[in-house]
Design a protein that fits this description.
It contains 14 helices and 20 strands. By secondary structure, it is an alpha+beta fold. Strand 1 and strand 2 form a beta hairpin. Helix 10 runs parallel beside helix 11 and helix 11 runs antiparallel to helix 14. The protein is elongated and about 150 Å long. Bound molecules: adenosine-5'-diphosphate.
């Protein structure tokens, strides 16, 4: 056995994560030795085509056994010549040429007794342990019977029973080992998918960054490469060493990914690329030589190539690499890798959809910005001629007009006032919606603002025959915000309530503190708003479908301004209303 094989066997032994399983096997050999009467008993398991000793009992001088590893083929001569005793094979010294055997269980040379059934030092007795499908998974061998005799029928029965138990123990340990690996991979995959789906990490670039670590750790790989495939033969790709060092990707590698990944995805297979390993997929064979060349150029010894995809679409290619000193890729690992190909493929699909959505939102935002800019510019442009018109109308009013002309002058004045209101509201909405115009916060007494609004609207309310009540704390309630904007907020809500409440009704303005929030409530017992209308209420230019409300002049901008100002102040606005049953608007604003 070469040194590197020995190290590998040692690693395999140590790597058998289930040390409890090893303890069971040790107990097993000790029981066999003690109960059946052998000085030496060993138990080996098959790992990567080698018989690796896991448990030994016997004289210290042979404890080399514990580090012994031989290819499974050492059993061949035994199988060829031995007598079968259940699971055991007995090879009597006189039936073979001792030079045929080398290794594993050849322990000692000692004197043979002189009875006919005496144990010969060159006798071999080994039990073959197999899994449910008959594959060899281990061997139990015994030597140096205490009695000095070859085992009798009773001892053979006992041996058989112990071998059966050992077999179970090894099968269980293998299953556990597979499970442990699977769990590790599943955990790696979960971490990977979790990090890939985090909203702040949901960009394809971020997926590549965040999947590297869990992948190399989960698979004990020396490096990872994820290549996304685009239609043009390119795509985002990143290769890194286990330590995170970025590996330059050549065009040939990217090209190889484009050719290999779809074939693997179609076959739903992963591919182990290593010198001397037959490709598991004939379709990949023509590309194998090229893949091996690339591997060698990168100083790597083996790689696991995994297609990433979702549905019928192959989205990318994942390659995990290993060096000469690393163990070969196990069946469990290749199985888990394929699973990760699905999971990562699904995550990539989601992220791709998210990225497209984000681009769309960005486009819409740009469109919206453009619209706001257009409105702001137009409003500005309209404002100057409007001022000229209204100024001239005022001058006209001062003249002694022909009585026949007076109604025309009055109508033009009303129209101009309406138009001015629309332009002013549009300008205000554009200003409070402009991200370039940040909010300048100062302490503002909300009660003082409400009180001044109520004072201003009071005469209109009175003229309409309404009761306008204000329930405000005389000590005031301070919030942080822009006084002019908060004035517009309260003003719009109170004037709406007055506007949409018929004579005889009541409008109540309340402000109270709830913890660190100021609650402004404007309630009326007026027309109310239908449920359908409530949906679009805060959209610019929204006007109700209720003909009674439509009779009142309005721009449909007042509530859009309210909502935007509330939003800028980190507050919330809600409406509670029933058609014909009055309306309450509630605004919550943080006090600090
Ligand atoms: P407008 O200039 O039309 O009043 P707003 O944005 O202020 O625009 O209001 C939008 C619509 O919401 C109004 O047209 C009206 O139908 C409805 N509305 C607003 N406030 C009330 C209220 N207090 N009672 C009934 N309807 C209201």
């Amino acid at each position: 056995m070469s040194d590197s094989e020995a190290t590998r066997a040692e690693e395999a032994r140590a790597g058998w994560s289930d040390s409890a399983a090893r303890a069971v096997l040790q107990l097993m050999v000790e029981s066999v030795a003690e109960m059946i009467g052998f000085e030496v008993a060993t138990l080996s398991v098959v790992l990567d085509g080698n018989l690796v000793t896991m448990a030994y009992t016997g004289p210290d001088e042979f404890s080399d056994y514990l580090t012994s590893t031989d290819p499974v083929s050492v059993l061949d001569p035994v199988l060829a010549h031995a007598e079968t005793w259940g699971r055991f094979r007995f090879l009597a010294a006189e039936d073979y040429d001792a030079s045929m055997l080398e290794g594993h269980w050849m322990v000692v040379a000692e004197e043979q007794g002189d009875t006919p059934d005496a144990w010969h030092p060159m006798d071999v007795l080994v039990g073959l342990l197999t899994d449910d499908e008959g594959r060899l998974i281990g061997a139990m061998s015994v030597d140096r019977p205490v009695s000095g005799r070859r085992p009798d029928a009773a001892q053979r029965r006992l041996l058989e029973r112990y071998a059966a138990q050992a077999e179970r123990a090894v099968v269980t340990a293998f299953e556990r080992e597979a499970l442990v690996q699977q769990v590790a991979h599943a955990e790696a995959a979960r971490r990977l998918i979790r990090s890939a789906s985090m909203p702040d990490q949901a960009s394809l670039e971020a997926v590549l960054d965040h999947t590297h670590q869990p992948l190399v750790e989960g698979f004990g790989a020396s490096g990872s490469w994820i290549q996304l495939l685009d239609d043009k033969g390119g795509g985002l790709g990143k290769a890194r060493t286990r330590e995170g060092e970025v590996v330059e990707l050549s065009d040939r590698m990217v090209d190889l990914a484009h050719r290999l990944a779809p074939r693997l995805w179609e076959a739903q297979q992963v591919l182990v690329i290593a010198e001397g390993i037959e490709p598991s997929l004939p379709a990949a064979e023509p590309l194998l030589e090229e893949s091996l060349r690339q591997l060698t150029e990168l100083g790597l010894d083996s790689a696991l190539a995994v297609p990433l995809g979702a549905g019928s679409e192959c989205l990318g290619f994942l390659v995990l690499s290993r060096r000469a000193q690393d163990p070969p890729w196990s069946a469990v690992e290749t199985g888990s890798a394929l699973q990760i190909g699905y999971d990562l493929g699904a995550a990539l699909m989601t992220v791709r959809a998210l990225e497209r959505e984000r681009a769309l939102v960005h486009e819409l935002q740009q469109l919206d910005d453009y619209r706001s800019q257009l409105i702001a510019t137009l409003s500005h442009e309209l404002r100057t001629p409007l001022t000229v018109i209204s100024g001239n109308l005022e001058l006209l009013g001062d003249l002694e007009l022909d009585p026949a002309a007076q109604p025309y002058q009055a109508a033009m004045t009303r129209g101009t006032v309406r138009m001015k209101k629309v332009v002013d509201d549009l300008l205000l909405l554009a200003r409070v919606s402009d991200p370039q115009h940040p909010l300048a916060r100062v302490p503002v007494d909300l009660c003082a603002i409400a009180s001044s609004v109520v004072g201003l609207v009071g005469s209109t309310a009175e003229g309409k025959g309404l009761t306008l009540e204000a329930r405000l704390d005389p000590a005031g309630l301070v919030v942080q915000g822009d006084p002019a904007e908060l004035d517009r907020l309260v003003g719009n809500l109170v004037s709406n309530a007055v506007k949409y409440t018929p004579a005889g009704g009541t409008v109540t303005v309340t402000i109270e503190r709830r913890g660190r929030t100021a609650i402004l409530r404007v309630a009326d017992d007026g027309l109310g708003i239908s449920e359908e209308d409530q949906v679009g209420l805060f959209r610019p230019f929204f006007r109700t479908t209720n003909p009674d409300a439509l009779r009142e002049p309005g721009t449909g901008l007042g509530l859009a301004i309210v909502a935007t100002i509330v939003d800028r102040h980190d507050g919330e606005v809600a409406v509670h209303s029933r058609l014909g049953g009055g309306t309450t608007f509630t605004v919550a604003l943080p006090t600090d």
